[in-house]
Amino acid sequence: MGNRFESKVALVTGGAKGIGRTTAEAFSAEGASVVIADIDTEAGQALAETLPRATFVRTDVASMTDAERAVRTAVETYGGLDILFSNAGIVMYSLIEHVTEAHYEREMGVNFKGHVWMCKYAVPAMRQRGGGAIVCTSSVQALATQTSVAIYAASKAATLALVKAIAQDHAHENIRVNAILPASVDTPMLRNAARSFDPNDVEGVVARWGKMHPIGRVIRPQDVANLVLFLCSDEASALTGGAYLVDGGLMAKLPVVLPE
After folding, report:
1. How many CB atoms within 10 Å of residue 56?
2. Which residues contact 253 (CB under 8 A, 6 or more apart)?
3. What residues pair up with 137 in beta bridges, in sequence order?
4. Which is nearest to 14 in space by CA: 197, 120, 136?
5. What are the b/e assignments for 66-92, b being 16+ CB within 10 Å?
6. How far apart are CA 257 and CA 260, in angstroms?
7. Within a 10 A sphere around the Cβ of 150, how many other Cβ atoms?
8. At what angle are helices 64-78 and 114-128 packed, to 10 degrees?
9. What is the pLDDT of residues 135-173, one digit of tens each?
10. How far apart are CA 213 and CA 206, in angstroms?
11. Residue 98 burial by CB count (10 A; 0-12/13-18/19+): exposed, middle or buried?
């Protein structure tokens, strides 16, 4: 492991499990102090205890108050904030005619408003440090969607527009903002979705979804973490306002099968 993030402070939302957990561990392994923000107190605290310089703060990113507290925790505990991985997300399946106001508010609240509030408080903290890097998790479903995910897809597409706008507003302050667009990633959220399709064969469902990707498998959390760390490193100093696929070639593929 290198030390690209020695003396840096990273805040990871949705940091207790899945992509967030793996990325928090990766930042820590490369020298960063890490604030883990999540609604899962038990998992978040347990993870923080395994890392050398890590703190957990219970955070519902849809709450402006919680978002402010998460950033304040980074500043008060470690002296500032250099990196935000705004990653918390949920998926709720429904045809548009069955979407309720509560469904809409919760899914947009976590998947889109969460980025708004986290960036609102992260940007001033980064300004105090002379710059920083923000990565927001979008999805390939911002570009092309499966069925029954209208609100999820809309939230992920809105995230791309938000990232481009914030990147333009703060590039002159050395604050870089990018989005990542994962395909199917092997996380607890994906496995919960697979369980709803076939509770008796979760592994089989995940494997079948993996075969839809040209690389023949679902994306691993470490694949995503590798991209996030690169985008937050000095090696990516010219990259801002971008949207980066980590999808195993999925978006390059047409659903056409030719005869052997």
Report:
1. 25
2. 213, 214
3. 180
4. 136
5. bbebbbebbbeebebbbbbbbbbbbbb
6. 9
7. 17
8. 30
9. 999 999 999 999 999 999 999 999 999 999 999 999 999
10. 11
11. exposed
Q: How long, in residues, is the chain?
A: 260
pTM of the model: 0.96
- Contacts with 168 (C-beta within 8 Å, 6 or more apart), sequence order: 241
**Beta-carbon neighbour count of residue 193 at 10 Å?**
17
CA angle 80, 21, 220 (to 5 degrees): 130
d(CA 7, CA 24): 15
Average pLDDT on 194-213 reads 88
145: amino acid identity, one letter: T
**Could you tell me the domains of the chain?**
9-183+220-245 (3.40.50.720), 184-218 (no CATH)
Catalytic site positions: 152
pLDDT of residue 1: 56
Among candidate residues 141, 156, 93, the one with its CA nearest the CA of residue 250:
141
- Whole-number pLDDT of residue 179: 98
| Mean pLDDT estimate for the chain | 96
